[in-house]
Amino acid sequence: MTDVHTGELEAAIGVFDSGVGGLTVLNALREALPNENLVYLGDTARVPYGTKSAVSVMRYAEQAVRALQARRIKAVVIACNTASAMALEHLQKCYPSIPVLGVIEPGAQAACQTTRRKHIGVIATESTTNNQAYQKAILELMPDARVQAQACSLFVALAEEGWHQGELVEQIIAKCLSPLLEKNGVEEQLDTLVLGCTHFPTLSAAIATVVGESVTLVDSAATTAKAVKARLADEHLLNPQLVAGQLNFLVTDGPERFARVANNFFNEAIAPASVELIDIQHFSAADE
């Protein structure tokens, strides 16, 4: 059990991402844990993480957690697939006294529970696909699964521009997913598709239209929220308050742009004045 005093149960859950995509995880967390206080940090000065080295991503992630710790947190959620793949184990070792969860393992577990024919597809950014984090996590849970991954980086641009549905969007999605949807026989057909980027849930309706009813979508944001709730319950860290939790936004650059683009991801409008600009460089990693 995590060593947190009763008075600290009202401490916030810290959530971080390289930018705005992690807001889909924040939506899911608010739905699953409406009375929890949440602090969201978007490292917008250094987005995207996908083009950075593993060493840099680990350093960025550790600085993000240190910045969140300054806001009094009881748990950390890595709402970024790249950081989850490259920095989760590092952060768990650096901060053993608090739960640190990523988005990949919950998504992999949900995919294995969902699949009917053990044929699972994963769509993500190029860096996450090349890292093979989802493939490894799924095969560790289900060694005889067939896992196909497809990089769909263009979906990030669609999501950020607010192009979530429509004929043109579906045409682009169909083109990008065509390698996964090629069908020979029934046994060869994909039956489960993991949305392996936090931007992608905003496109879920259009993706579902393209892949058809025979393919079940797994939203890593929703599955992560369920995993966070279960972990907090196990650690006796759930907030006992009966009122809606507070929500704070931090960014490392461009609060106005963050608030504007966030409207494509978050269920509520965010006022630019409510987004706090911080200098994350002040929160050096432990070995610096």
UniProtKB/TrEMBL annotation:
Residues noted as binding substrate in the record, renumbered to the chain: 17-18, 49-50, 81-82, 198-199
Keyword ATP-binding attributed: no
Catalyzed reaction equations: L-glutamate = D-glutamate
GO biological process, one term: cell wall organization
The protein's enzyme class: isomerase
PROSITE patterns: ASP_GLU_RACEMASE_1, ASP_GLU_RACEMASE_2
Isomerase keyword on record: yes
Active site per the UniProt annotation: 80, 197
Pathway linked to the protein: Cell wall biogenesis; peptidoglycan biosynthesis
Pfam families the UniProt entry points to: Asp_Glu_race
EC number: 5.1.1.3
Gene Ontology molecular function: glutamate racemase activity
Family from the record: Belongs to the aspartate/glutamate racemases family.
Function: Provides the (R)-glutamate required for cell wall biosynthesis.
Protein name: Glutamate racemase
Native source organism of the sequence: Marinobacterium marinum
